[in-house]
Amino acid sequence: ADDVILAIGQENAFPWIERDLGIEFDKWDVPVIDPRTFQSTRPGVYFGGDAAFGPKNIIWAVEHGHQAAISIHRHCERQPVSERLPPGMNLHSRKMGMHEWSYANDYSPVERRLMPHVSLKERFKKLNIEVELGFTAEQVEQEVQRCLNCDVQTVFIAKLCIECDACLDICPVDCLTITANGPEAELRARLKAPARNLAQPLYVSAALPQTGRVMVKDEDLCVHCGLCAERCPTAAWDMQKSQLHWPHAEDEARALEARKT
After folding, report:
1. pLDDT tens for each residue of 212-241
2. Which of 53, 54, 83, 224: CA 20 to 30 A from 137?
């Protein structure tokens, strides 16, 4: 980049950008940005973070920087800035033994532990006192084990299923159902726990070899405890860690160089 502008403030303000440069502004007086490339209406000028989309957290700002860097690199290489490498994903089994996993999977229905606080009487005695007392080391260890392991996915292999119903019996949240296939609206009504969150797609397997029925899973309920995989006698269920790779500018650079050679 020829220029990098460091700006720290509480609101967007662009009086320093002349309005006849070809950069359009919306009704909030912020630049009109392509949400995929982060390019403004003037080719070669890019915006990201709060300046482009209003208040968001720092994770989004970092992602905007990555995507803008890809666009800038492609622009400098005279390549279409809207093109992107596809994201990649790897899955690796977490199984270490018959009943052992490489992550904590003990399911506990106990509610989250409430943060202990200083009593009101003590607070009034000393107004600048820290109200939250925090957890002990033992309590912290217990609470962090409650993680839903969102990066560990349930993977089902239909051809291995013998329809013994062991996974259905062990599931603590009733997110699994073996039933005849059908329209989604009908399937949702036939699940062990009716799937009412229409925004969350259902997992529907291929036809099972024994009866032709299908395994249906409501991901909205699943807590990734792995009990289905632990109970399954044929390893039709497995718990696999997913690793997503979103291409960055250096990946785009390597791909462009590879195409040149």
Report:
1. 999 999 988 888 888 899 899 999 999 888
2. 224
Distance of CA 140 to CAs 111, 112, 136, 143, Å? 14, 11, 6, 5
Instruction: List the CATH code of the domain at 90-106+148-245.
Output: 3.30.70
Rounded Cα distance between 202 and 95, Å, is 25
CATH 3.50.50.60-classified regions of the chain: 1-86
Name the pTM for this structure.
0.58
Residues 174-184 pLDDT 10s? 999 999 999 98
